[in-house]
Write a structure and sequence with these properties.
The complex is a heterodimer of chains A (about 475) and B (about 200). By secondary structure, chain A is an all-alpha fold. Chain A is about 75% helix and about 0% strand. In chain A, a hairpin with a 4-residue loop joins strand 1 and strand 2. Chain B has a domain of about 45 residues. The chains are: A mainly alpha (about 475), B mainly alpha (about 200). At the A-B interface, helix 1, helix 4 and helix 5 of A face helix 6 and helix 8 of B.
Chain lengths: ~475, ~200
């Protein structure tokens, strides 16, 4: 083991070391062990954002070519760089989003930021995994941190329930993933992605291997909350503290979808014919459920949960296609999904009445009069999620659907278009409540500065994406090419 | 050869007998003691197979830690074990049948693996054993050198688990007396008074 073997994992090593340093710094702050300590919370949150920012720099510095480390267990390529940057941005945004909420609800403890950074480290390891074991290690690190942050508001019954539900179902999914991985190992004799790819290049995969792949898909589908493994999502999203929900909706989704894409395209890419119909089913079912089940929701966090299930369905169309255009579609979708969701959740975090969060859709009534700017931003996000041109969400769907049509998957593309029409109904309902209903009891007027900035930036990106789309399209195309070449 | 066979049968017989006694003895403490015996004999079997490191680990980890821990649990819990075990003989045939089936399955699996030559070759390809290395060395190389990334990652996961447990359960309680070593060491002689007490008088 020489030092140049560790260089590709430099961002991960840096983040891991900084986590431990921040942990020590936080623990020895005066009063840090109390139930709420705003000073240490702010200090560690600020430093964590700095660490994530530096990690982005390190990730980008390593971007030029494909590098392997740790005996082929860890890989860095254009695909990993692109998705890692997205994940790091999402995590930093989640920490920014949570500051006001955590302090108001008396749970501002410094461990929150540390756990978020831990989850981010796990996600980076997932994205760079080139072996079934390192995949599992990253996944578990991410999941364990997420279980804890889900029940971070430990005095609140719903938050605790969310954490427990997530934990039990997550353990089940990990079990399925491990069972699948053991079958893959048993029928191929290796867990390394490169070796698996070389093995499958020759001919038909054996039945046992296909069963293993399907179990791995089931485990990963749980992590991205795709139908039929979505049951945990609405409950966890509703119960978890709102900034944690914002985090759940973005960073882990991006990381898990990136991992999903790598696992399916890299080791099992040549066996695409064997797993394609499974992904098509998962994708179509997610789109339909995401559109239909969201219609009846009254709670906006539950609605966002179903909306994210639907979005995962759209992104998975790119995987059904199983070619470079499809992967490019997924990557574009993820970037735009990140911006839309961060913005939408920042708007949801503005919904409070007398310092208490409200989360019913009916509470949005009259928002256009009390908060005209935020209402306008939320309108932009909702139109974008519904796929109204020229907003960014339209382009996300456009590239995915065009990839599907080019590959001849007309049925999937048509179902996708139909479900996005159904989905438009509930997105537009939010707009109608904001603009055409009068408030009986208006929301609080003051809104945190960091929320305003985030909403402004994300709304700007979503509205003017079409002016310079190449800022996302080119890196996404390069990343997709890197994955397929490797 | 004959010595090895004799040793094998001795270890195997005692291990199985101890296993039976673990579940059939009335006193739970005796059960634990038989469990330790079973572990020791299993360790002996490992030695016969040439896996001396695993044998040591088995003794150190199971006999040393787990069995002692289990002993504490058994002694501290006030469970009416005789009542819990009533009906044991009634379910014995069913349990034995399930055990037999599992055994048969394992035999089939192992036999199948052995019979295909590809399987044996694959095993060799996956876990080749170099000439002249002890298995402590081989395992050490595998865990700490080849898989160092996974080893470190596992460490980080344990750290997450620890932080999580503390975050979710640690509460600040009032009235807890804590030991402060520095304060204790800083105490001078003036806080303590030594007196000579005469026998039968007291102070």
């Amino acid at each position: 083991m020489t030092i140049d073997q560790i260089i590709p994992a430099l961002p991960e090593v840096f983040v891991a070391c900084m986590i431990m340093a921040l942990l020590m710094l936080g623990v020895f702050q005066k009063g840090a062990l109390a139930d709420q300590d705003v000073k240490s919370f702010r200090l560690i949150s600020g430093l964590s954002i700095g660490v994530l920012g530096l990690a982005i720099l390190l990730v980008v510095m390593l971007a030029d070519r494909q590098l392997m480390a740790f005996n082929g267990m860890f890989v860095v390529d254009g695909f990993a760089t692109y998705t890692k940057v997205l994940v790091l941005i999402a995590s930093a945004a989640a920490i920014v989003l949570s500051s006001g909420y955590m302090e108001r609800h008396g749970v501002a403890r410094f461990e929150y930021a540390i756990l978020v950074v831990f989850a981010t480290l796990g996600m980076m390891m997932m994205i760079s995994a080139n072996d079934l074991i390192s995949l599992y290690m990253g996944l578990e690190m991410q999941s364990l941190s997420l279980y804890v942050v889900a029940s971070f508001q430990r005095e609140d019954q719903r938050s605790t329930e969310a954490g427990l539900k997530y934990f039990v179902l997550g353990a089940l999914a990990s079990g399925m993933l491990l069972y699948g991985a053991s079958l893959v190992y048993g029928f191929s004799g290796t867990t390394n992605f490169s070796a698996l790819a070389a093995l499958l290049q020759g001919g038909e995969p054996s039945v046992g291997l296909v069963v293993g792949i399907v179990f791995v898909i089931a485990g990963l589908a749980f992590k991205v909350s795709a139908v039929p493994f979505h049951m945990w999502t609405p409950d966890v999203y509703e119960g978890a503290p709102t900034p944690v929900t914002a985090f759940f909706a973005v960073a882990p989704k991006i990381a898990a979808l990136a991992l999903f894409t790598r696992v399916m395209m890299e080791p099992f890419g040549d066996a695409a014919a064997s797993w394609q119909q499974v992904i098509i089913f998962v994708s179509v079912a997610s789109m339909i459920l995401g559109a239909v089940a969201a219609v009846a929701q009254k709670n906006i966090k539950r609605l966002m949960a179903y909306s994210s299930i639907g979005h995962v369905g759209y992104a998975l169309i790119g995987l059904c296609v199983a070619n470079e255009a499809g992967v490019r579609g997924i990557l574009i979708y993820l970037a735009i999904y990140l911006v839309m969701n961060v913005g939408a959740f920042a708007c949801i975090l503005c919904m409070k009445r007398g310092d208490r969060m409200v989360e019913q859709i009916s509470d949005l009534a009259g928002m256009s009069k009390t908060h005209p700017k935020i209402a306008l931003a939320l309108l932009i996000f909702m139109f974008s999620m519904a796929g109204v041109p020229p907003l960014a969400g339209f382009f996300a769907k456009l590239y995915i659907f065009s990839a599907a049509v080019d590959a001849g998957l007309y049925t999937v593309a048509i179902i996708g278009v139909l479900t996005s029409v159904i989905g438009a109904f509930y997105y537009l309902r939010i707009v109608r409540v904001m603009y055409f209903e009068d408030a009986e009891d208006p929301l609080d007027a003051q809104v945190g500065r960091e929320l305003k900035i985030l909403i402004g930036v994300t709304a700007f990106i979503i509205s003017f994406f079409f002016v310079q789309p190449n800022l996302i399209l080119d890196p996404a195309a390069a990343a997709a090419k890197a994955l397929l070449a490797g | 050869m004959i010595v090895e066979a004799l040793a094998f049968y001795m270890f195997a017989f005692i291990a199985v007998a101890a296993g039976v006694l673990v579940i059939s003895s009335k006193n739970p403490v005796h059960s634990v003691l038989f469990l330790i015996l079973a572990f020791f004999n299993a360790a002996g079997l490992f030695v016969l197979m040439g896996a001396e490191f695993l044998a040591m680990i088995l003794v150190v980890v199971y006999v040393g830690a787990v069995a002692v821990l289990f002993m504490f649990v058994v002694m501290m819990l006030d469970i009416n074990f005789t009542q819990m075990r009533s009906g044991f003989l009634q379910y014995l045939p069913l349990g034995a049948l399930i055990g037999l089936i599992l055994l048969a399955e394992m035999v089939v699996v192992a036999g199948g693996w052995q019979s295909i030559s590809a399987g044996a070759q694959m095993a060799k390809a996956v876990a080749p054993i170099a000439e002249g290395t002890t298995n402590t060395h081989a395992l050490g190389g595998l865990i700490y050198t080849h898989n160092v990334y996974l080893f470190q990652a596992a460490g980080m996961i344990l750290l997450v688990a620890m932080i999580g447990a503390i975050v979710l359960t640690h509460r600040r309680r009032d009235g807890v007396k804590k030991q402060r070593i520095a304060d204790q060491n800083a105490r001078g002689t003036d806080t303590v008074e030594t007196r000579k007490v005469e026998v039968g008088k007291g102070i």
